[in-house]
Write a structure and sequence with these properties.
This protein is of the alpha+beta class and 184 residues long. A hairpin with a 2-residue loop joins strand 6 and strand 7. The radius of gyration is 17 Å and the shape is globular.
Length: 184
């Protein structure tokens, strides 16, 4: 039996200092976005992870995508993030929260002339912060190999990673999405 404020030995308190990433890890380059993992899934005994993402003015986010087992909660810390949620567009200003439940096609971007940032929180058993670490590594690998990231063999590698995390990314929609919502 434990006493108040005493955790069982299999659990530990997790702390990430301001301006740092979990375990002082470097920033990730995820599809051109600067992403810092703030709490790793393993630090929360498999219940939660979160990342902080930074977007430059008029920077696009990822292609439209859908998670089949993951819910996301966004908290905007700077600027305004534009979110595609299904067929609707919503602007989420600093201080705003946005919940994206599993099964909803979505993406995000910064459609303004000021930088923007947000914290994405992933409650549940899926280690999505680790997916982002793997995605950043795959992008670096393709770059180091001199591969075209849009070539069919590269897209196949992205899709294999996506499938392991039970979500689907609509890479083929990105050109249309950028033309419609991208920097002018």
């Amino acid at each position: 039996m434990t006493t108040p404020n005493t955790l069982p030995p299999q659990f530990a308190v997790a702390y990430t200092a301001p301006g740092q990433n979990a375990h002082n890890a470097p920033m990730l380059n995820v599809l051109g976005m600067a992403v810092g993992v703030k709490l790793q899934h393993a630090q929360t005994y498999g219940q939660f992870s979160c990342v902080e993402t930074y977007l430059t003015p008029r920077q696009m986010g990822p292609p439209p995508h859908v998670h089949y087992e993951l819910d996301e909660i966004m908290y905007v810390t700077e600027g305004i993030i534009t979110v595609l949620e299904g067929d609707a567009i919503r602007e989420v200003p600093k201080g705003g929260y946005h919940f994206r439940p599993r099964g909803v096609i979505h993406t995000f971007w910064n459609s303004h002339d000021q930088p923007a940032s947000f914290i994405d929180m992933y409650p549940g058993s899926q280690d999505f912060a680790h997916y982002l670490e793997e995605l950043a590594q795959l992008g670096a690998d393709l770059h180091n190999e001199g591969a075209n990231p849009f070539a069919p063999e590269s897209i196949a590698r992205f899709k294999a990673l996506d499938a392991r995390y039970n979500h689907e990314v609509f890479y083929e929609q990105m050109p249309e999405h950028m033309a419609k919502y991208g920097p002018k």
